[in-house]
Amino acid sequence: MPAAADSAGRAGFVPISPHLVPPTLFARRKHWAERFGIAPVLPMSRAEMDALGWDSCDVILVTGDAYVDHPSFGMALVGRLLESQGFRVGIIAQPDWRSAEPFRVLGRPTVMWGVTAGNMDSMVNRYTADRRLRHDDAYTPDGAGGQRPDRAVIVYAQRCREAFPDVPLVVGGIEASLRRIAHYDYWSDKVRRSIVLDAKADLLVYGNGERAIVEIAHRLAAGQAPEEIADLRGTAFVRASGTTPPDFTEIDSREIDTPGPLAPPMDPYADTTAGAGCAPEAGPSGTVPVPSPALIAPASLRPRKGDRARTVIRLPDFEAVVADPVLYAHASRLLHVESNPGNARALVQRHGDRDVWLNPPPLPLSTPELDRLYELPYTRRPHPRYGEAKIPAYDMIRFSITIMRGCFGGCTFCSITEHEGRVIQNRSETSVLREIAQVRDTVPGFTGVISDIGGPTANMYRLACKSPAVEAACRLPSCVYPQICPNLGTDHAPLIELYRRARAVPGVKKVLVASGVRYDLAATSPAYVRELATHHVGGYLKIAPEHTESGPLSKMLKPGIGTFEKFKRLFNEASEKAGKKQYLIPYFIASHPGTTDRDMLALAQWLKRNRYRADQVQTFLPSPMATATAMYHTGRNPLRKLRRDGEIVPVAKGAKTRRLHKAFLRYHDPANWPLLRQALRQMGRADLIGNGPDQLVPLRQPAAGAGSDRAKLAGAASRGSTFRTQHVRPTRPATRPR
Fold first, then answer.
1. What pLDDT digit, counting tens, does each position of 45-86 carry?
2. pTM for the complete prediction?
3. Potential cystine with 369: which of 45, 178, 365, 715 (Cβ 3.0-4.6 Å)?
4. Are 134 and 637 in contact (CB under 8 A)?
């Protein structure tokens, strides 16, 4: 049957079966330019191209990061992958975006542009959670700030179009991936349309994009027009509205997960004074009583058997989600429900007179594919043009080893699951050991210490659903909340064996685990905790309980604090048995949706009881497309079926409230005491003001300039501090403990 085509020329819609095993990532016949061989480094100048004998590049990758030829840097990985397919790949790193001229430095690409903001979203990279401009950038030589624009994907794409308007343009990376549909933008405080429209891109690649980018490059090189490429998983594109192929069944998302009638027009005579409206009243503790989240997808959301490949779900239009917060939360819910590559259906969302079409997520890479991808001929160091300049993100990861991808934790504030998926993709032991030997033999400055062996999480290596059929059918957002799923295998034995073999590599003195440990999983394996504490901790271990109270934890999909305390007990016992003084560094989030002032007070009291002092803390930053961001924007809970009279999520949006929540985490800092005293009195908890061991802040403020008195008072606020949290930069870019 010929592929259907629409009036815009978009064609090629063919069934996408999640049960088909895809051809291997490296199965394609190589492009003719393979004859030029492997480049020592991917060129960044015409002189380097001339030295390689190239008259042009087939693909030019534009990135907001400095070019480090290491698989932890996305453009290096994509560039080396395309090179392995026979393409000549050049890189334009951190170009001056104020004109198109820097985008012409390598000439016209013969196949396509590939554009990314880099390893981090450019807005997250450039601004704090308080929307203050950062003055440094870990992905830039010498950490200099200001080397990339706001919304870098859009800006770079515009300059590429100005430089060579006829060249197909593909955008990808985390910034594009998390903006693939209409999304709330924290920095402008509004809902923005899909980035594929604003960037005027031919295609957007989301998630782990290796399969899609290889296929796109080969098809474009063979002469296929970009508008004809419509059947690839993990891609999004634009088509004329109302042109769904006739052999597809289109389902309105509101028919299968009805959010209730549209909000009625506002009554100009309605009482808008405090207390009017339908929000539930606060209980005696000051918290809003809410039902626990219903995390099981209703039967209506489960796809009918056999028709997934020809089904598309129409989300509420861009204009509708802008106008109606409930429909925004509904669209967010459907996007996340349709995220399992085993059962996801295509999604479409109208923006004016155009549709943004999202194909289902990419299929995970197999272990042999991931091995080969990570063993491509990277130099594992920055491009020579940077000379002796230090690139902080490279310094963090140059002696680290990635052993897996993905995360099935489903934390609602985190973009790892949304970008890399829930299915864990593992490298083989043999491949990991070869890379350790390569680091030992080739990376300058190696002293025998592997700084990290992990990934998005340290201990999900080779953990998976016990049943492939269950895994393919599952639509739950997390495999470990509210409890660890009985279908999830939690055997840490393969990881323990990998650790043992890694530290036995000749020339390796120590192998550290600096990726965040998922402590609820670790607590199921005392043997793993013993191995970790005995051999792989360098004094401190990062852990992320995030909070102590059920309100915010239920919105994060994080386990209760009791699970952390169980892990802490196992860790301390193992450390003591090993004869080591080692400490946990717990991370907490202030102002996460679902958090009240009283929740933060309870957390502060827990911190003091347990003698923790947080030097630096994190305030919730609503990143694009995250479920927690939908809660922040709408005040609704997309983890459950949406109802207009349903659960209202407490959200801390005002600057004063966010400052207060952060101050509770740093209750020991004298600078926060005036704010905390005022808040405690307003909350009816003046009994917590004083110098007693059970009180939170002292009664009096230290005199100006009384440094020693100030220090004594700070000590009194957290008397007997045995464990002291400190800020530790992550050892792998864009990750934090899980």
1. 999 999 999 999 999 999 999 999 999 999 999 999 999 999
2. 0.88
3. 365
4. no
